[in-house]
Fold:
Amino acid sequence: MEINRHNLPEDPAALQQMVRSLLEELETKERRLKQLLHWVEQLLRWRYGPRRERVSENQLFLFAVGMVTAALEPPPAPEKHETSPPQHAGHGRQRLPRTLERRRVVYDLAGQERQCPQCQGELRHIGEEVSERLEYVPASLYVIEEVCQKYACSKGCTLLTAQKPMQPIEKGLPGPALLAHIAVSKYADHLPLYRQEGIFERHGVALSRQTMCDWMRRRCAQLVSPLFDLMKERVLKSKVMQTDDTPVGVLDPALPRTRLGRIWTYVGDDHHPYTVYDYTPNRSRDGPQAFMEKFTGLLQADAYSGYDGLYEDPEREVIEVACWAHTRRKFYEAQSSDLMRSTVMLAYIRLLYDVEREARNMKLDREGRLALRRTKSVPILDDIKKYLGREQPKVLPKSPEGQAIAYALSNWKALVRYSEDGDLEIDNNGAERSLRGVAVGRKNWMFFGSDNGGRTAAILTSFITTCKRLGIDPFAYLRDIFERISTHPQSRLAALVPDNWMAARRAPATP
Structure:
């Protein structure tokens, strides 16, 4: 509103109306300024600050502990479970794993040294002193010469040649171990293909990144795609499934720069221990809805609106479970605008996580964890809802604190659902952790070369992450799968999924 200082209205009512308009405009600008300062603070913290959303213990005590403890009535003591005392890790150097190869080097006394220097009698062997030293053998390449013997009839009737077994890449250069090494180096160790190209050059072998990319896409990913489809089918049978997504850059010839594609993760429960990834060219709801077309159960995710169609579909039984970590992040980021209310909420959420920590320390099963939550978490959740309802009218709806409160209350039914089922987690951090490798990897390989490259990464990363989840060496698994899958019967494909593969390796050999 422009004001001419030399031409103010003389009418008191008009002057009063002008002041009201100026005050409203000033309030709007102040609110906008606070919002911009909040965004700047979040950007600076994202760019330069710590990633961990840690809150000072003194801050929680000064602003929140008194209010929280006063609002809470002491809950009845839960049934005590006998627990073993905590095991503290020892100090000093740990023993090397027994699975490593041992090469024994024996140091012995010479013949003349085996005589006693006092009586000149012969010394008797009474034992040995063993120490261990860790050594490293650099990776190496070698060539396998596959020789097929030929036989002919002396009378010229017949000519026979021995047949080679089927290879992962028919008439191709790489063996299964080389393919597994390239895949693990890129998708587990985040080593881009151009760096692997330089490493192979030091070994005296020229393998271009284009060639290795073609191996990963057209050979490896296509080779294991039936196994990937089986893992996808099994993860969708989970009672509880967690999901999340993260952006990735993708080259597009039609654009002067990269565009954003999306990697989605789907984490199965303990009865379906698979982590399966999916790639989509964008973040539309079509991607997750197509992937989860056959899923029914509990879906734990953030409040992304693309999942709403799954929850609202009357023909589907997909139940929403929200994430307290996302809710906590809203209040953590709102500290700059409303420190008091944000810290109170952070203290409340801290109490919820203390209950979860207690359940883990006691190693409770599904029923025990549910009983503990009903005893301790439910009263805290009731107080949180009362507090949010009491404070919501006191804050501006568009302020960071107002948006955090609105987010929690609008998702309240899904937020408290974890207290109704012992199989549920309090947050979606399992899915977020499964995307950490993608986040680290994109800092190294920067972008996917195409949508096909994104799909290749999704397939191979699914096997590598599932192997890590189960404690399997992904190189050993992929090397064996690449070697066997071409000749493996389709009817027994389930034997090659990571958990069954591991079980077969650990099963005792039958005589």
Q: What stands out?
A: The first strand starts at residue 150 and ends at 152. Confidence is low (pLDDT under 50) at residues 68-78. The first helix runs from residue 12 to 48. Residues 97 and 375 are 43 Å apart (CA to CA).
